[in-house]
Recover the amino acids of this structure.
């Protein structure tokens, strides 16, 4: 009725009808037609927004979505206004159509239609914005947990004692090997401290870190653990830091290793995925583990790349497949 009052009054004045000829009955019909038109426009706008949210999300293509919303709103408003106007004048009033009035009413209703468009799209946009904030907060939380877990693993007394014990045995008998062990140990700690605030690192750097960490593992287990890596063409591929260390640590922690039955760990690239496989030789008894590492890796990848980390195992091998992040440049925190 609010829209009907001014538009009907202007229509009467333009057509030269005296205001005394405007009956309450005709005004009511005009107002009800306006209400029906606005109701139809709102419902179509709402249905259109729900459809586009599935096919053309604001986050992925904002400018194309805006153009689609505006153009479709114009077409929807024009079609509904003309249909309702024609029904009122041709069917109910038995009067001929007058196009200046169609243009006037379409212009007025189009403004309201734009308000409807903003209203129906506001809720998904606000929800998406809140979800983005929550996602960022969860990612930061998972990243902090990963850093703490990595530092907890590397800086634990158990880790120190193992390497110091190995170092003590090498100092007198094999001083050159002792120097190598110290150098690799320092590289491991330097890498962790260097990337403690990074969410992702180049895969090439993670691979270099993996080689240093493998050296420490080999110094402790010797031929009880056998590593095999086949990683080429790492340009443009990134990964959360210390991911591979956590997977290797997980394999060593949960599997037996001996000279007769060595633990075999294979790391290789497969279709922009990094695959880590080890033969299953599960330790007997209870293995003390916080289980944070593997769970955290899965959550971090889901937050960063929106693709899952796939884990599979059978009676012979345990397989972890990591989707790598394609990125050109340097990440900024």
């Amino acid at each position: 009725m609010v829209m009907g009052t001014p538009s009907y009054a202007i229509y009467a004045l333009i057509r030269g009808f005296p205001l005394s000829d405007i009956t309450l009955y005709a005004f009511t019909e005009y107002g009800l037609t306006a209400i029906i038109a606005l109701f139809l426009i709102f419902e179509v706008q709402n249905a259109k927004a729900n459809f586009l949210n599935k096919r053309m999300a604001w986050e992925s293509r904002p400018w194309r979505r805006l153009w689609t919303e505006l153009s479709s709103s114009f077409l929807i408003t024009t079609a509904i206004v003309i249909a309702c106007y024609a029904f009122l004048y041709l069917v109910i009033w038995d009067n001929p159509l007058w196009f200046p009035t169609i243009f006037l009413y379409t212009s007025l209703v189009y403004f309201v239609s734009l308000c409807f468009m903003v209203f129906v799209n506001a809720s998904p946009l606000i929800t998406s914005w809140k979800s983005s904030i929550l996602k960022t907060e969860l990612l930061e939380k998972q990243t902090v947990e990963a850093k703490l877990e990595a530092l907890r693993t590397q800086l634990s007394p158990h880790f120190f004692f193992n390497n110091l014990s190995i170092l003590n045995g090498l100092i007198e008998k094999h001083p050159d090997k002792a120097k190598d062990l110290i150098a690799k140990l320092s590289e491991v700690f330097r890498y962790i401290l260097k990337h403690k605030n990074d969410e992702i690192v180049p895969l090439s750097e993670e691979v270099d870190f993996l080689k240093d960490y493998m050296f420490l593992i080999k110094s402790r287990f010797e031929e009880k653990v056998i590593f095999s890596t086949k990683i080429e063409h790492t340009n443009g591929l990134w990964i959360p830091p210390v991911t591979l260390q956590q997977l290797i640590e997980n394999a060593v922690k949960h599997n037996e290793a001996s000279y007769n039955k060595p633990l075999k760990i294979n790391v290789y690239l497969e279709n922009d995925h990094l695959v880590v496989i080890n033969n299953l030789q599960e330790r007997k008894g209870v293995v003390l583990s916080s289980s944070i590492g593997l769970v955290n890796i899965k959550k971090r990848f889901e937050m960063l790349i929106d693709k899952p980390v796939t884990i599979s195992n059978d009676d012979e091998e345990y397989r972890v497949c990591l989707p790598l992040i394609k990125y050109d440049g340097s990440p900024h925190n």
Observations:
- The radius of gyration is 34 Å.
- The first strand starts at residue 201 and ends at 202.
- The chain has two domains: 4-134, 155-326.
- Residues 99-154 form the longest helix (56 residues).
